[in-house]
Amino acid sequence: MVVTKRPTMQTLSTRQLVIDIPHRPDGYPLDLTIEPGQIWGVLGPNGAGKTTLLHTLAGLRAPRAGSLCLDNQPTGTLKRRAFSQQVGLVFQDHQDGFPATVLETALIGRHPWLSPWQMESADDVAMAERALEALDVLHLKDRLVSTLSGGERQRVAIATLMTQAPHTWLLDEPTNHLDLHHQVAVMKLLTERAKAGNAIFMCLHDLNLAARWCDNILLMYPDGEACWGRAERMLVPSALERLYNQDLTTVEVDGAPFFVPKRG
Ligand SMILES: Nc1ncnc2c1ncn2[C@@H]1O[C@H](COP(=O)(O)OP(=O)(O)OP(=O)(O)O)[C@@H](O)[C@H]1O
Question: Taking the model in full, what pTM does it have?
Answer without folding.
Answer: 0.94
